[in-house]
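Morning F.,

Quick status update on the modeling queue. The single chain you submitted on Monday has been processed. Sequence for confirmation:
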Amino acid sequence: MCGILGIVADSPVNQSLYDGLLMLQHRGQDAGGIVTAHQNTFHMHKGRGMIRDVFRTRNMRSLQGNIGIAHVRYPTAGSVNSSAEAQPFYVNSPFGIVLAHNGNLTNAVQLNHELFRADLRHVNTNSDSEVLLNVLAHELQVNSSNFQLDPTTIFKAVSGVHQRCQGAYAVVAMIAGYGLLAFRDPYGIRPLVFGSMETDSGTQYLVASESVALDTLGFKLIRDIAPGEAIFIDENSNFYNKQCADKQSLNPCIFEYVYLARPDSVIDGVSVNETRLSMGESLADKITSTLPHLDIDVVIPIPDSSRPSALQLANRLGVDFREGFVKNRYIGRTFIMPGQQQRRKSVRQKLNAMSVEFRDKNVLLVDDSIVRGTTSREIVQMAREAGARKIYFASAAPPIRHPNVYGIDMPTRQELIATDRNEEEICREIGADLLIFQDLDALKQDVSKLNPMLTNFETSCFDGKYITGDVTPEYLSNLEFQRGAGLPMSRPQSITQLDLSLVAMD
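Structure tokens below.
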């Protein structure tokens, strides 16, 4: 997951983009970047680290202009932790274009070969976002007349992107001298919303991964960008939109509601916080129906995203709710730490158990999900060391048994604790006395009951069903091999290598 922003305003946007990135910092801590446009010139600053560390006063002063885009990066499998892969990316031909992307292209290697051989374009990094940028640039070139653009031409180019690109992508881009473009993949996997603000000078527009960025910047949420839809806002704040995909359906990533998004965001018409409250109710109902005599003294959440679910679960069961862990807020999210050892170490740095809440009690710990099991195992051990008599562990999400290839770092089956293990075996692995998982149907219902228009979800990490239809066992095996070997995305260096790569893929 990554976070993206785009603003068209009547005054400098550098501070608004910076403030918006702070609201989306949870979506990526590896790198950040801002690009603004002023008099057909792009001004860019980006680098590795948290937003507060990437930008200084001198950097902000150089970001001139009333239109801009921004990005926080979260690296996924096979990506390189380098400043070269910080976004936004830039290309100068045939138009100056900068682009920021949230998601993952599942056919990035094939597209890279096409760009090299047929489109005569060179991709300089291992990022699929640069591939996406060059595909967009090529489509703008072949659809433009005399290198002139208008909204109709731009939307034709986005249609071409949809026809060529597979996977998940929410995109913001700027075209020098024209304006801001935003679009979402035809399956609507990754979130993207837009809103407006009325000023004395006219209407300003903001596009963002989550509605929380709009709220804090004073913009009014209009709606989510629809799957396959593109919106274009020119430099004079004239707004255009068009459905650019031949076939589209809304399949939001359900893990956004479980963990990724902030609780104060609204995604596809659904409050993330309300969803998490409902998840707690469903989990309580499962405990009541399947384990009616379970002796629970206290319910304790594992901060932070599980707190709403744990609170509602405790209320439903009529059991005390207590905060048993104190969180060090200066440690990053362990879920997106790069290695197992670093992740294990950071758990102890991040959380500390208060013995008074655990001593001689039967404790029900509640977490949003169990991915690799490293965090869960450490937390159970911390609870035992704090004096808990028995430790029950509840996950507000079902077992994660399959890789996610749409922009979340769940890429290999070997790293997922639930792969090839039943609940009893997982329970032993994390050291708990009892383990309870949410049911997938209940999780879907927790979201859809808040918006009946949502009938389908991207749930591949739970059920192994990949909605884009192009993820094969061979694709997953190759992805796991690349991750295990530390290999980046294949980038052809010559025609000979290109042809060999294509043969290997077949």
